[in-house]
Known about the structure:
Largest sheet: 5 strands, mixed, barrel
CATH class: Alpha Beta
Radius of gyration: 17 Å
Amino acid sequence: xxxxxxxxxxxxxxxxxxxxxxxxxxxxxxxxxxxxxxxxxxxxxxxxxxxxxxxxxxxxxxxxxxxxxxxxxxxxxxxxxxxxxxxxxxxxxxxxxxxxxxxxxxxxxxxxxxxxxxxxxxxxxxxxxxxxxxxxxxxxxxxxxxxxxxxxxxxxxxxxxxxxxxxxxxxxxxxxxxxxxxxxxxxxxxxxxxxxxxxxxxxxxxxxxxxxxxxxxxxxxxxxxxxxxxxxxx
Length: 234
């Protein structure tokens, strides 16, 4: 099998942040990590390891979609021994009371796809995060933080022939749509490691609003900082 990560054993920390965009991984490494060292450039999926408050953590892009994060999460866990994975992503609001820049902690994930069929011969997987990570992140919330808890829809489709495909999910109470959390949660559960998805609302399917590329960088700082804090030991 062709490896998708070119790091050596020991290059990747046991705790990792997983933004979808590899350039966001580079940004996080340069802004938040001390002595960041690039461990992967294969397929331009940049990955770095460095220190925060004397503790070693890694950050790496995953690309877009269930299949892409499925590849990287599996290799990180099986080959490099990663035990804690936190996705940092963008998402589209499905509820009218959500605003651009709000943060959604994925307390569960549904999907339009069949990713979990590999784990079960029948039934449907309710994809959930690690409870300890979830509790820790909730404890880090401050009164001023615009952080919500709720379900994420991990869609196979960025462009859909039915512009209203998301509405039944919104009617079921799902907060936002993205493309990766379901795969991360099911893989982590199967491999018995810890995972959590934190997403910032960059667009609204309800209002049609969206953040500019520049505003995305500025709005994502709180998500990045909460993700890092969640990985650190007291």
